[in-house]
Amino acid sequence: MSASLTAVGVFGGTFDPIHYGHLRTAFELLQALRLAEMRFVPAAVPPHRGPPRVAAEARLSMVLAGIAGQPGFVADDRELRRAGPSYTVDTLGELRRELPDRALCLVVGMDAFLGLPTWHRWRELLELAHVVVAHRPGWQAPDAGVLGELLGERRSHRVADLHEQPSGRIFVHAVTQLEISSSGLRELVGSGGDPRYLTPDAVRDVIRDNGCYLRNT
Asked: Domain residues of the chain, as ranges?
């Protein structure tokens, strides 16, 4: 396939809450991979962790607040509207049906990539999308085992491959790693701390106005 396809990034997570670590990663990939847009997809029922601390509506409000004003950033609430576990393969299947002429780029961190074989119907992911692995500088991708074999077969070092094919490639890209975690933010707010400069002020306002993460809620 030689024609260029418009590539769309798919960035899932609980975003409980969204913070500058998420946003900077998404921004760098949007630019480096020349994506038409980056879709933030909050999970309703994450399969690999406990339930989110706050309700879906508040987390979606935080995502909308966090991405406001950035061209190419889009909130996608399909997993919040879908019953059952928020399986990524189901989300990608829906997007593939809706966007048959687009390349899809699923964004995961290196830690998530290392756990990929535990994901629901994980081998189908590359039939539906490319996998973009965002990692901190200095980290090494696996060179053995099932993931090492998969990288040997599917890894690309060309951004153009993400636009010339609709799915099927693995692209590993180093991004700026900000040492911010959602769990750390929840603990900070729960202890009466201020999350300013860790998350956008608009997200901070949603946290304050909704009483998110307070220990008596």
From this structure: 6-181
Q: What is the CA radius of gyration of the chain?
A: 17
DSSP state string for 83-100: -S---HHHHHHHHHHH-T
- Would you report the helix, strand and coil content of the chain in percent, each value rounded to 5? 40, 20, 40
Beta bridge partners of 173: 134
Question: What pLDDT, in 10s, does the model give residues 89-142?
Answer: 999 999 999 999 999 999 999 999 999 999 999 999 999 999 999 998 777 888
- Topology (CATH) of 6-181: Rossmann fold (3.40.50)
Q: Which residues, 6 or more positions from 43, have their beta carbon under 8 angstroms from its beta carbon? A: 12, 13, 14, 52, 79, 86
Task: Please state the φ and ψ torsions of residue 166, each to the nearest 5 degrees.
Answer: -75, -20
- Cβ-count burial 17-51 (b if 16+ within 10 Å, e if not): bbbbbbbebbbebbeebebebbbbbbbbbbeeeee
CA angle 110, 115, 117 (to 5 degrees): 130
Q: DSSP state, 8?
A: E
- Residues 6+ positions from 105 with CB-CB distance below 8 Å: 7, 8, 9, 10, 29, 33, 35, 129, 130, 131, 132, 162, 171
Does this model's pTM top 0.85? My answer is yes
Beta strands in 115-215 (DSSP E): 130-135, 170-174
